[in-house]
Amino acid sequence: MNKNRFKMKGSTSLLVIAGIVTTALAGSYFYLDRQADSRATATMISLVDEAQSQGMALSYSSVDASPLTQTVEITDFWIIGNDLEADIHLGNIVMKGFSWQDLNDNQNKLPQEMSINIKHGELHLKRAMVETSTSLQSLVRILGDTIPFSTKVSYKLDPTQKLLKLSLTQTVEDNFFFDSKATLGNMGWLTTVERQQTQIPAQAMSEALNSTLNSLSITYKNTGLIEKIRADISTQTGKTNDQLTLDSIAQLQQLQMTAAQHWGPVLAPLIDEMMKFSSDPKQLKLDIAPVQPLTGQDFMMAFIGGEANLIKLIEDAQIRLKAN
């Protein structure tokens, strides 16, 4: 009897302790969550005030920060320009990457990993700005004066390997999908940069010049944009879609002949893929995977050192282009 009573007391004590710990953790989270919301709101108010001083108007419906999921979410965010500037509406923005330590004012370093995901975005072109620009008039004919889009940008820094991985995804509905990924080397200098710095310190800038391009991948998927462009050109010129397709292929063939005369066969495979895409515009993928990471000096010499250095860069970069 006493033994059973002892077991009951022990179980009851464990339940009480577990309850106290759970309550304490929950209380700590709600406190931190409230602190995070307060800081996020204060930051947004500061941004709105700064924008007003610059002649722009910012507005939003709500902002929510969660230390548990390490996210900040902003809804119904508007950037209102003047009569000659576009308005931008970002329906939902989710920023992920801040940590618990970011609630401490002493933590001011850039997060080692962060992403910004924008959904239900819209670019609104105003009549006054369109009327004064022929290029914008062409854009409106093709895409309309309200352009819906979504965007996701992310990065991840490996301070041990000094590698920075970047990615950008852009979707314009019923027009195109764009996705790019890059890996940069010698990026350890980013760990010395603080979030609120407006200029990179001289030492970090010196180290940044030694950064390298280790790889790059870009994928473009046509979901209607090229057809809309050709339809607009057809209206302006009277040419059929087939005629416009043949024209673009002929121009690429002429470019291929010129490139072969001046630079040899190095560009021929790339232009072949461009002709395939022109004939059937579905997808175009570019890959750069050099045997050795490309330095800033490699790019500088390619652009100021003449055609031979440019061709060498293309060969060293091992550029591959694939249509469809």
Notes on the protein architecture:
- By secondary structure, the chain is of the alpha+beta class.
- It has 9 helices and 12 strands.
- The protein has helices at residues 2-53, 127-131, 134-143, 202-208, 225-237, 241-263, 268-279, 296-304, 307-317; strands at residues 57-59, 62-66, 71-80, 87-96, 113-124, 146-158, 163-172, 176-185, 212-222, 283-288, 294-295, 319-323.
- Strands 1, 2, 3, 4, 5, 6, 7, 8, 9, 10, 11 and 12 form a 12-stranded antiparallel β-sheet that branches.
- Strand 3 and strand 4 form a beta hairpin.
- Helix 3 (134-143) packs across helix 5, helix 6 (241-263) runs antiparallel to helix 7 (268-279) and helix 8 runs antiparallel to helix 9.
- The protein is globular and about 80 Å long.
- It starts with a helix and ends with a strand.
- Residues 3-8 have low confidence and may be disordered.
Write the layout of secondary structure elements.
Elements: H1 2-53, E1 57-59, E2 62-66, E3 71-80, E4 87-96, E5 113-124, H2 127-131, H3 134-143, E6 146-158, E7 163-172, E8 176-185, H4 202-208, E9 212-222, H5 225-237, H6 241-263, H7 268-279, E10 283-288, E11 294-295, H8 296-304, H9 307-317, E12 319-323
Tally the helices: what do you get? 9
Percentage of residues assigned to helices: 40-55%
N to C succession of SSEs? HEEEEEHHEEEHEHHHEEHHE
N- and C-termini, Cα separation = 79 Å
State the secondary-structure class: alpha+beta
Mean pLDDT metric: 84
Low-confidence runs (pLDDT<50, min 5 residues)? Answer: 3-8
Write down how many β-strands occur, each being a DSSP E stretch of 2 or more residues: 12
Radius of gyration, CA atoms, in whole angstroms? 27 Å
Q: Biggest β-sheet: count, sense, barrel? A: 12 strands, antiparallel
The global form is: globular
Q: What is the strand content? A: 25-35%
